[in-house]
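Section handout, structural biology tutorial.
Before the tutorial, make sure you can parse a SMILES string by hand: atoms, branches in parentheses, ring closures as digits. In the record below the ligand is S-adenosylmethionine, and the chain has 242 residues. In the tutorial you will relate the predicted structure tokens back to the input. Do not try to memorize them.
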Amino acid sequence: MPEPRRRRSVSQTHLLNLLSAQLADHFPDAADVIDVGGGTGGVATAMATLGHHLTVIDPSPDALASLERRTAEAGLVGHVRGVQGDANDLLDIIGPAGADVVICHRVLEVVDSPAEALTAMASVLRSGGVLSLLASQRHSVVLSQALNGHIALARRTFADRNRFDHDQIIALVQQAGFEIVAAHGIGAVSDHVPEALVESEPGAYAELYALEDEISQDQTFRALAPVLHVFARAGQKSPATA
Ligand SMILES: C[S@@+](CC[C@H](N)C(=O)[O-])C[C@H]1O[C@@H](n2cnc3c(N)ncnc32)[C@H](O)[C@@H]1O
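Predicted structure of the complex:
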């Protein structure tokens, strides 16, 4: 694994390595992957590089234009397609049982109804299909906004009903019919370590990466992390929809 170069990239690298390994475990061959709210395609292109077939659904034309450029630059034309749409349109766009994997990273916070969005994600998955959900955790976001001097924003975030804590995120996923396979906190330490403290020391980023990996499933660190990654399996489908 190349050594991550910047503090932010420790958590991003950790997330991508985690998801790559989870998908390889469940789908050793290419999987049909939907990235809901996939934006400019950072995650989608990384997964397409591994051989998976990606569809990015996003309402933003600008994001989709960037996705197209990124896909061409990465030599992935034909492996990643962008579709303009909303999480609510998922079933119309993909159809029932049309995908092996749904990725939904940092989108639950912006949809009108997170519960309905998760139910739609479950409905487009085939039997054995999986969800990769990344959601920001309210307490950590409030703390970080307040520590950066954005106190009014921190108060609004604390009151925001679309910001969830660890147990609420897990409950939402289960209520949509998923079975939790694994949950990891992402960036619990690395997103807080001042870059100046580690940038001059050889090997420090690799140490930080190793620490992130070790603590990501610790119950306390997981709940304190800025974002929670949940990997979950769709419930059994009836023969008609599988
Ligand atoms: C914070 S960005 C996350 C992008 C990407 N998933 C990532 O992790 O880098 C949120 C994305 O959700 C998209 N979005 C906003 N409202 C949405 C909706 N109702 N359904 C699906 N995507 C939405 C935005 O256009 C944006 O690309």
